[in-house]
Amino acid sequence: MRIAAIQMRSGMQAEPNLEILAGLVTRAANEGACYVLTPEVSLVFAEDRVGLAREAGQFEGNPGITALGALAARLGIHLHLGSLAVALETGKFANRSVLFGPDGAIVAQYDKIHLFDATLSGIKAYRESDSYSAGQEAVVAPLEPFTLGMSICYDVRFGALYSLLANAGANVMAVPAAFTVPTGEAHWEVLLRARAIETGSYVIAAAQGGHHENGRATYGHSMIVDPWGRIIAERADDTQGVVVADIDLAEVSAARERIPALANTRRFGLKRQADLAARQLRKGMA
């Protein structure tokens, strides 16, 4: 089957982003993709809570969600909105991923669990938790013929999430993202390939790329990685476009049989060597 990742350079208003997104998704569907993933914050890429409040609405009745559901139905595909900001009653927002079925109905949704609170050298601090509330549950979605594990951007640094998703049946991992340029250059490919290798899964990563209206610069380089960790399709720059690849789920079974890391995982405790030494010392003094 054929899957596709969309690479965007989203601005701060939903309507022009939707127009660009619809064109790219239609192109992917015309190339035969039956599952299409868009980047993180596809509809509104605002920089702070004030900007989000101007554009991000509530989940129910959200016009962007309505439009993308209609697009999925018109094209007859699974359309995965990597994420959008959803206004919550608390005054904060959820960074929410939404999966539409070929009939346009929502079949799964996931709120980003790991929020990016970090200070990068030479760049101002990022504190997603100032604007967003963290999700509490991992999500897998059976799509037939594959099972999708849902994640968003910073989640990719937390391997335990993907092990959980794989053990719950996921064999394709979705990573919509808006990686910064410094972290993208250093870690993007390595992390995506690691998540594929350790779970024996396909990884599809749809990225934001380029210089944005809000002043941010994102890395791009959307890609699809096979269960052996090989990049089978990539957009090797930060420009808008489509990445398409054919996947074979037999490759998942083959990778997991060759390196049965999921099956070999064991639970274990932790021994603090300093504590052991102290106990031995006390025993010797008794």
Describe this structure in words.
With 286 residues, the protein is an alpha/beta fold. It has one domain: Carbon-nitrogen hydrolase (Nitrilase/N-carbamoyl-D-aminoacid amidohydrolase), CATH 3.60.110.10. The chain is built from eight helices and 17 strands. The strands form four sheets. Strands 1, 2, 3, 4, 5, 8 and 17 form a seven-stranded mixed beta sheet that branches. Strands 9-10-11-12-15-16 form a six-stranded mixed beta sheet, covered by helices on one side. Strands 6-7 form a two-stranded antiparallel ribbon. The chain is globular, with a radius of gyration of 20 Å. This is Carbon-nitrogen hydrolase family protein. InterPro entries: C-N_Hydrolase, C-N_Hydrolase_sf, Nit1/2_C-N_Hydrolase. It comes from Devosia algicola. Keywords: Hydrolase. One of its GO terms (molecular function) is hydrolase activity.
CATH overall fold name: Nitrilase/N-carbamoyl-D-aminoacid amidohydrolase
Number of helices: 8
Largest sheet: 7 strands, mixed
Low-confidence stretches: none
Q: What percentage of amino acids are in beta strands?
A: 25-35%
Mean pLDDT: 93
Radius of gyration (CA) equals 20 Å
Overall structural domain count: 1
Helix share bin: 25-40%
- Listing every helix as H and every strand as E from the N terminus to the C terminus, the arrangement reads EHEHHEEEEEEEEHEHEEEEEEHHH
- CATH top level class name: Alpha Beta
- Total strands: 17
The global form is globular
Structural class, by secondary structure, is: alpha/beta
Distance between the termini: 69 Å
Report the CATH superfamily.
Carbon-nitrogen hydrolase
- CATH level-two architecture: 4-Layer Sandwich
Keywords: Hydrolase
InterPro entries: C-N_Hydrolase, C-N_Hydrolase_sf, Nit1/2_C-N_Hydrolase
GO molecular function: hydrolase activity
Pfam families: CN_hydrolase
